[in-house]
Amino acid sequence: KKLIWPGGSLFITTINKTQLSYALGIVFSEQIxxxxxxGTHTWEKFVSPEKLESILEPNGLSVQTVAGMxxxxxxxxxxxxxxxxxxxxxxxxxxxxxxxxxxxxFVLKGxxxxxxxxxxxxxGMHEELKK
Length: 131
What we know:
Blueprint: E1 9-15, H1 19-32, H2 49-56, E2 61-72, E3 77-81, E4 87-94, H3 104-108, H4 123-130
Antiparallel strand pairs: 1-4, 2-3, 2-4
């Protein structure tokens, strides 16, 4: 079953795995400010753009764009940014030819978390990435 056809796009939004994202995403937003409920974020599920690319590329997806995203809790709006240290969006395109897909479990070398695909991925791809 094909989740993304050759030439098709995959859009993923997620949280980068940095000290800053831990401090603001978990400590501040969950424990101090209460912007989101405690336990909303799991540090082990945060993924860097480099790790995301290392999962996608062996599976025939070429990352085209990575853009930072910043949330303003006072206005309630998201804004694009060059800074990817907190949240980011990635756009990848499925190659026309794929030799042998590599399961993400192999790429992650035993890590329990794959990705948190939040936006625009098909439900099937979201489930595949959660394995």
